[in-house]
Amino acid sequence: MNFGEKLRKLRNDRKMTQEELAKRVGVSRATIAGYETKGKEPPYSTLIKIAKELNCSIDYLLKNNVEDNVNIEKNNYYSSVISKREDLQQLIKETENLNPDSIYRIIEIIKIINEEVNERGKKNKS
After folding, report:
1. Which residues are within 8 A (CB) of 89 and not within 5 positions of it... i.e. 6 or more apart?
2. Average per-residue pLDDT in the chain?
3. Would 34 disulfide with which of 4, 40, 91, 106, CB 3.0-4.6 Å?
């Protein structure tokens, strides 16, 4: 994906019009359209503003790397899920200062709970 394609996708994913993005970064709508369709690239100062408004890195916008796109999509999905669930927000809050060993212990406990839930589900279907 090139810069223009990434810009359009990120803008559309955030349900933002070209006009809205243009106002937020201080350029015209036609300038945004040029970035998206005519292969034009913004000056660095504008690129910084675009990245900030679209909540992505400058590297992501400029690199042609599919793996980065997958990671951004995953991050957007997880952010969306977490923002909707108070229990997950509380879990993150309670664990954010724990060391990695403690986090791995918690993950193991979660796996055990998942196995128990799956087993109960299988027994109920029998």
Report:
1. 82, 83
2. 87
3. 40
- Residue 36's pLDDT is 92
State whether 43 and 102 are in the same domain.
Answer: no
Which tokens sit at 64?
């042609």
CA quadruple 67, 72, 73, 74: dihedral positive or negative? positive
Tell me: do 73 and 97 sit in the same domain.
no
Give 43-87 pLDDT, tens digit per residue. 999 999 999 999 888 888 887 655 555 666 777 788 888 889 999
- Nearest-angstrom CA–CA distance, 1 and 81: 26
Higher pLDDT, 74 or 19: 19
The two three-digit tokens of residue 116, written as one number: 């128990």
Model-wide pTM > 0.70: no
C-beta separation of 34 from 40 below 8 A: yes
- What is the distance between the alpha carbons of residues 16 and 54, in angstroms, rounded to a whole number? 9
Q: Name the token pair of 40.
A: 């034009």
**Do 51 and 90 fall into the same domain?**
no
**Domain's final residue, options 78, 95, 110:** 78
